[in-house]
Design goal:
single chain, 63% helix
């Protein structure tokens, strides 16, 4: 069943909400790590650990169970394929990697192609926190964000920041 996304704020305010975003480590991720990942088309274990802990630090012990070789192989497939289902689902083979964490790897590894999915962004689009994530939800969300990003002439990163920040400030 296709989701009905509805932005809770005026789309003209995306830049405003994005400008209010301030999340620890975001500048390093965007300005140093993302360009490195996009160039090499895979994550090293250090890159992987940094991105995973940035998104969700609690499963750190699970992330650490992944060895360098497996991380490189899985992420190189995810970042090189044109198949969105393979891109996202293969990343969930890595220990501790949930759909939201996998979406972070794609968001920074394939610039302007994929959003980060999480309960805050979904709430800003009038979707309740899902009990589980799956390809259909992620794909519908990604496609909606791509259309909105293009329609409003904003980067996927700014759209992501706006959705997250709006929820942070407005969600009870």
């Amino acid at each position: 069943m296709q989701q009905k996304f509805e932005l809770r704020f005026n789309k003209k305010d995306i830049s405003f909400w994005a400008s209010r975003y301030d999340y620890k480590g975001d500048n390093i991720i965007c300005n140093v790590l993302a360009p490195k990942i996009q160039k090499q088309k895979y994550l090293t274990k250090d890159d992987f650990m940094l991105l995973c802990r940035w998104k969700s630090p609690r499963p750190t012990k699970q992330y650490e169970k992944n060895d360098d070789y497996f991380i490189k192989e899985v992420t190189s497939i995810a970042l090189s394929t044109t198949d969105p289902k393979l891109s996202i689902e293969i990343l969930t083979l890595l220990n501790g990697v949930s759909w939201p964490v996998a979406s972070v790897m794609l968001h920074f590894g394939k610039i302007n192609e994929y959003p980060i999915i999480d309960y805050r962004a979904l709430w800003s689009l009038n979707i309740d926190k899902p009990s589980f994530y799956n390809f259909e939800l992620w794909n519908d969300y990604s496609n909606y964000c791509k259309r909105l990003s293009a329609e409003c002439n904003v980067s996927m990163r700014d759209l992501d920041r706006a959705l997250w920040q709006y929820s942070k400030e407005k969600q009870k």
